[in-house]
Amino acid sequence: MGKKIKIGPLHTNFEAPFVLKIQEDNGIISECNIEIGYSHRGLEGLAMKRTFLQVLQLVERSCGLCSHTHTLAFCQAVEKIVNIKPPKKAQYIRIIIAELERLHSHLFWLSSVYKILGFQEITSTIMEFRENLMKLLEHLTGNRVMFSVNIFGGVKIDIPSKNEVLKLIDTLKKPSEKLYNFFDTNLSVLEKTKNIGILTKDEAILYGVVGPTAEASGVKRDVRKDDPYEAYDEIEFTQFYKEEGDAFARIIIHFWEIFESIKVIEQAIKKMPKGKIKQPFSKIPEGEAVARVEAPRGELFYYVKSDGSNIPQRVKIRVPTFANLPATRLMLLGEKIENLDLILASIDPCFACMER
Amino acid sequence: MTSIFRYFKKIEEKNNSFWVESPHSPIFVAKMVKNQQGRLIAISPYLEDEKIKLVYHFEINKKVYNFKLKVQNSKTESITELFPNADWMEKEIWETYGIVFEGHQNLTHLFIDSTLQTPLLEIEKQRRKNG
User: Fold this and answer.
1) Are B59 and B42 in contact (CB under 8 A)?
2) What is the pLDDT of residues A280-334, one digit of tens each?
3) Mean pLDDT in chain A?
4) Which of A4, A266, A311, B16 has its CA 20 to 30 A from that of A274?
């Protein structure tokens, strides 16, 4: 009979607090339970006491790494209730900022994965060339995170310096390829990640996992392809998937997403038309709508209900980590305790986002 | 898809998704959706005229279908047997709105600490009543 171990709420490799209660037998996890709630802020309750414009600022603060996708989904839901579409230029600006956010989120996550794998030097190298991306985002939007770009009916900012964006995106290509080649060929990395934390295709479908976690298990699921929003139907990019469902597959899918995001930004910059960046409207009428956006971690879902007043009747948020984290129990069962951090990190969890 | 809709009288397509008012139980709807290889996205509770209503959001063939189901006496059926990802969704609704999901294996706290009073909706109602 093994021991019961409680890990957390503070962790060395994760920024957010959570508790893991595991039952181990000779170093193998035989049962595990995740307890959350340490970062719960009651955002949905607060949203029912604030105006729509205040809620836009509130939902932006659900998460630091995917703030733009939260405001994008909320704006889309409100625009559906009002029955307006933002101008084409605004749609392209939204795509460019969303993909820049995907890049900085994936790079930040990759640095933590390399740290868990024991490559501290690579962690600081990634943060160094990610810093150029953060400076670009600050130059374009005024903020390094929480860009405050989205507004109902369009966007608040224009992107006058297209060449600057293209120049910076170009500087990310070679370092990303180098990192990918290292990851794909280094024996130590392969030993630590292949056949670890497997989630089969059937399990992924049963638990409704989303994003790179689903794609790594052979489930093709990307809102940008399945239900295109903004101007994504005018942009060509490849949707990847792998069949193995292990930690290696999940990390590789993130790399491929980085390369595709670079292509999407280049296309969006070239195809972005001239024109207005905002569609005005007067009032948010009574109605309800749902909106789905592909956040860096997967499908982000919003349900917004309006009773015709300036305060939303209901704002329901379902983030991708809420869909993926329950499935990690299946990934952890039968694995060694020392692989715990890597398996949890491989789904790119965002606890602050999930607990709202 | 029309095979599932023959059970539902009021179906409306608006804003690129389908909205269905259904008198059926959650398990009935969940079985229909499961047969169509659908996926549960979220369950949204909301308050209307002092009554709690639930909207079950499913994805079937890449389209979102929103089923509005009524709740009787703060109780309804759990769909965790068919959709295990409903586990955490039903726990969250239980601790905020006080709806008991019959058949749920482990209806315990998810986000709110067990020492705090729940459901939060009842506390909110009392707070509004007492000013």
Assistant:
1) no
2) 888 899 999 999 999 999 999 999 999 888 889 899 999 999 999 999 999 999 9
3) 91
4) B16
Determine the distance in angstroms separating the CA of A34 from the nearest CA of chain B, rounded to an integer: 10
Output the pLDDT for position B40. 94
Inter-residue contact A41 to A31 (CB < 8 Å):
no
CA–CA distance, A64 with A352 (Å, rounded to integer): 9
Residue for token pair 């309750």: A45
pLDDT band at A121 (very low <50, low <70, confident <90, very high): confident
- Which among A50, A47, A71 has a CA at the least distance from the CA of A60? A71
Beta partners for B63?
B60
Q: Tell me the nearest-neighbour CA distance from A33 into chain B, angstroms.
A: 12
Residues of chain A in contact with residue B47, where contact means CB-CB under 8 angstroms, are 314
Residues 6+ apart with CB under 8 A from B41: A208, A292, A299, A301, A318, B57, B58, B59, B64
**CA angle, residues B50, A311, A148, in degrees to nearest 5:** 140
- H/E stretch holding A251 reads helix A247-271
CA A51 to chain centre: 26
Of A81, A207, A290, the CB nearest to B17: A290
**Contact at CB, A37 and B109, closer than 8 angstroms:** yes
**Least CB-CB distance to B44: which of A42, A292, A316?**
A316
Q: What is the ipTM of this complex?
A: 0.90
Chains A, B: CB pairs < 8 Å: 73
User: How far is the first Cα of chain A from the last one, in angstroms, to the nearest whole number?
Assistant: 38
For residue B113, the chain A residues in CB contact (below 8 A) are 37
Residues from A in contact with B at Cβ < 8 Å:
36-37, 40, 42, 45, 80-81, 83, 205-208, 226-227, 288-290, 292, 299, 301, 303, 305, 313-314, 316, 318, 322-323, 326, 355
Quick: pLDDT tens for B33-58.
Answer: 898 889 999 999 988 777 888 999 99
The DSSP letter of residue A278 is B
